[in-house]
Specification:
The chain is α+β, with helices and mostly antiparallel strands. Helices cover about 50% and strands about 10% of the residues. The chain folds into six domains: about 200 residues, Transferase(Phosphotransferase) domain 1 (Transferase(Phosphotransferase), domain 1, Orthogonal Bundle), CATH 1.10.510.10; about 35 residues; about 130 residues, Rossmann fold (3-Layer(aba) Sandwich), CATH 3.40.50; about 100 residues, Serine Threonine Protein Phosphatase 5, Tetratricopeptide repeat (Alpha Horseshoe); about 70 residues, Tetratricopeptide repeat domain (Serine Threonine Protein Phosphatase 5, Tetratricopeptide repeat); about 130 residues, no CATH class.
Length: about 800
């Protein structure tokens, strides 16, 4: 029986279902005849992807609150209930088209009618907000045109869905952008979500004001402010976070300045810079309607490299904008400053591949300095460097993918003791060069050159900001120490066997300059990665890692990197509470550190706190969208929470970002195996030989479960032949044998791993389904106790997972 038939059978004679009208991500919509009053109504049924996670009774209770809204510009809820376990609600049938349909028509909506529509929506928001109801999903599809009036539908439904979900708020936040209209407390449509919705932060009425601004921009200009047919939902969401749209007056020549300014203010990234309330919005809109000030058509700009004419155009635009802002009393200073930038790796001499680290190091230092400027968002290192190396993308495309408004790029060359650096700052929206310069000095003057570039770029980004002249350099005046530091950072970023060499470079940098705080920070981080990539026991590097991290913080208490190292040292030592506190300190020191968020997410998964891990990993993924590692652990966390579909999609995304990443071929294959996707699992594993010992055990487990028992047996034999003294071998054997009938052997190896101070749960967390065959064993319970994880729900028939 299809959905329509089920619905009709459940509703009985009260309604006659006539036809399906369609629906969006949250509902299926049917036209029905209400028998008692002989009128047409709309019956909306929650979409099937939502029903599994919804308490139907609570949903009906929440919708009754929305039914109290009675306003001429709001489509009211008539009834709500549950029919055959299907949560539904009814609304009057509005004869007319949606604003979405009207936008698709030609000619475009006239300006006078557009403003009237926007005013009606603002009136609806003013009333609903006064009643304590936030819409959360304002978009053209939810605006219906009835005669000369616009009415808003589905008020309170997003809130009702969020409140009626069975899982905790953290667990139900679905991070897949394409399905954000379907589930989770971050209900909304990606194209119209506010920055705080994208970030997963609490929302208030100003979220609806931002969505109103997106809708207004689209209605008045005929195009979405971040319209790009090739852009994914994730790219649009990134734009909401860090990219300001082109000024509306450029898109609509002749528009009133006051109206254009109002729309742009509603699109401010900071809630505090938007109109304070819908009432304020309405008052400003009425004032704008009466204004007759207009802006001349924006001049066409031709060359990216030309400096004179763009400068004249920028000065003229700033002058007009300042005049308009002064008339309106707006926060011009807050909105005029450039809010986001990406620094691409400086191109080096391709004939000398050993200089690649230097080009990245120059960019890294600029990122660090710019990242200290309040209100300036700097694209993550991993993502900026990855995109900057692609020859098929221009500056605008790179900026769009990173969600930034400006881009720094340049070249660097060292030869015969001389250094030549060129750099330019580009406005990504129009491709115009905002600043450029060239420096030719002795190679030893690299630190001075970087300081000059930083000051110049900051002056271009924030004209008149005195902080532009006071940014700190890398923390050393010794060019040799700085060069060694850059070499170490380059290797740490690439993980693998280079981590051990990075330890040497950082140590040499410290020898050159014992006051170089960031060299100590880099060394502490590299030391805590040695257990994963060099087979060095964690307890052997603990004391040195702690000492170098402490020295880094003594020299520069603002650094987050050494705090992450301290947290990992606590974590590896099974000091769970101490690790948690130190991770929180690291995030407090630098809330934009994707590394801190990712490692904290891993820690939370390891300790069984899945619902807390997912938001941290979502933030890490947002901060560094092209870093596959955060996607690996986000996918893993989603799978551990039971969200298999979202996990699979995130897993695919991670593999697309970096198919050679070790975790993609091991950790994420576990999820494929648990989902029964054996053919895909075997294809992902491939035929590569994995170097680090612990990863051999994961591969053996995956092969055994996926059906390649011969290869799995070979790996088990090779592990058994290794000396017991090799650090990590017991963990690997345990993982390899838990897939077989010899679970006693697996438990024995787990016990040996704990006794040998191996970081057993850090490779494959004990929440994994891998350990379900031994989860009820008293021996497993004792292992969990010795690891300090008793009471975390890891023992029993299965680890408690939220339903998908």
């Amino acid at each position: 029986m299809d959905l329509r038939e089920r619905l009709q059978a459940a509703l009985g004679n009260a309604y006659t279902i006539e036809r399906e009208l369609g629906g969006g991500g949250m509902s299926r919509v049917f036209l029905a005849q209400e028998t008692a009053l002989e009128r047409h109504v709309v019956v909306k049924i929650l979409g099937p992807d939502l029903m599994a996670g919804i308490s139907a009774e609570r949903f009906a209770r929440e919708v009754r609150l929305a039914a109290s809204l009675q306003h001429p510009n709001i489509v009211p809820v008539l009834t709500t209930g549950v029919a055959d376990d299907l949560p539904y609600y009814t609304m009057p049938y509005v004869r007319g088209e949606s604003l979405r349909a009207r936008l698709h028509e030609t000619p475009p909506v006239p300006l006078r009618q557009s403003v009237s529509i926007l005013r009606d929506i603002a009136r609806a928001l003013q009333y609903a907000h006064g009643e304590g109801v936030i819409h959360r999903d304002i978009k053209p599809d939810n605006v219906l045109l009835a005669g000369d009036a616009a009415v808003v539908t589905d008020f309170g439904i997003a809130k009702a869905i969020s409140a009626a979900r069975n899982a905790t708020p953290e667990q139900v936040e679905t991070p897949d952008p394409a399905t954000l209209t379907q589930a989770g407390s971050s209900i909304g449509t990606p194209a119209y979500m506010s920055p705080e919705q994208v970030a997963g932060d609490p929302v208030d009425s100003r979220t609806d004001i931002y969505a109103w601004g997106i809708l207004a921009y689209e209605l008045l200009s005929g195009a979405h402010p971040f319209e790009d047919k090739k852009a994914s939902a994730a790219q649009v969401m990134a734009a909401h976070l860090g990219q300001m749209p082109a000024p509306l007056q450029e898109k609509v020549p002749g528009i009133q300045l006051a109206l254009a300014d109002l729309v742009m203010r509603t699109l401010s990234k900071s809630r505090d810079d938007r109109p304070a309330s819908a009432e304020d919005l309405l008052e400003n809109l009425d004032t704008a309607r009466e204004s007759h000030d207009t802006l001349p058509p924006h001049p066409v700009k031709q060359s990216r490299r030309s400096l004179l004419w763009p400068a004249i155009a920028v000065v003229a635009l700033l002058a007009v904008g300042a005049y308009a802002y002064s008339k309106l009393g707006s926060k011009a200073g807050a909105s005029s400053a450039i809010s986001s930038v990406a620094v691409l790796p400086f191109a080096h001499d391709r004939s000398d591949s050993t200089e690649e680290y230097f080009g990245e190091g120059i960019a890294d230092e600029l990122m660090t300095s710019l990242g200290k400027v309040p209100g300036l968002r700097v694209a993550s290192r991993t993502s900026a460097i990855a995109l900057g190396k692609r020859n098929d993308l221009d500056v605008r495309e790179i900026a769009d993918r990173l969600g930034v408004s400006t881009v720094v790029e340049g070249t660097v060359r060292r030869s015969a003791g001389r250094l030549r650096v060129t750099a330019q700052l580009t406005n990504a929206r129009d491709g115009l060069t905002l600043w450029s310069d060239a420096y030719e000095r002795d190679s030893k003057d690299v630190i001075e050159v970087q300081a000059e570039m930083t000051r110049a770029i900051l002056a271009a980004l924030r004209p008149g900001d005195v902080r532009a002249a006071g940014q700190k350099g890398p923390g050393t005046s010794d060019p040799e120490a700085y060069d060694l530091y850059m070499r170490g950072q380059y290797l740490v970023e690439r993980r693998g066997p280079g981590v051990a060499k990075a330890v040497q470079y950082f140590s040499q940098a410290i020898d050159k300059d014992p006051t170089f705080a960031r060299a100590y920070a880099g060394l502490s981080a590299a030391l805590e990665l040695l257990p994963y990539f060099a087979g060095v026991p964690a307890h052997r590097v603990e004391a040195r890692a702690r000492a170098t991290a402490a020295r880094a913080l003594q020299l520069d208490p603002t650094l987050a990197e050494p705090r992450v190292a301290l947290a990992m040292a606590d974590w590896h030592a099974l000091q769970w509470d101490e690790a948690d506190r130190e991770f929180r300190r690291a995030i407090a020191a630098d809330s934009t550190s994707a590394v801190a968020r990712t490692q904290y997410g891993r820690y939370l998964i390891t300790s069984g706190r899945i619902s807390e891990a997912i938001p941290q990993l979502r933030i890490a993924r947002r901060l560094d969208p092209l870093a596959a590692t955060s996607s690996v652990w986000l996918s893993y966390g989603l799978a551990a929470a039971g969200y298999d579909t979202a996990a699979a999609e995130e897993s695919m995304r991670s593999r697309e970002l970096d198919p050679n990443l070790l975790n993609n071929r091991t950790i994420l294959v576990l999820d494929l195996v648990h989902a029964g996707k054996f053919k895909e699992a075997l294809s992902t594993i491939g035929s590569n030989n994995i170097a680090p010992i612990p990863f051999h055990g994961i591969t053996a487990y995956n092969l055994e479960r996926a059906g390649d028992k011969l290869r799995a047996a070979r790996i088990r034999s090779s592990l058994d032949a290794l000396p017991d003294t090799i650090w990590g071998v017991h963990s690997a054997r345990a993982q390899a044998y838990v897939a077989t009938d010899d679970t006693a052997k697996a438990l024995t190896e787990m016990e040996a791993a704990v006794a040998g101070h191996e970081i057993l749960p850090h490779g494959v967390p004990l929440v994994d389904r891998m350990f379900d065959p031994v989860r009820q064993s008293p021996r497993f319970a004792e292992i969990v106790r010795k690891l300090g994880l008793d009471g975390h729900g890891l023992t029993g028939p299965t680890f408690h997972r939220a339903p998908p």
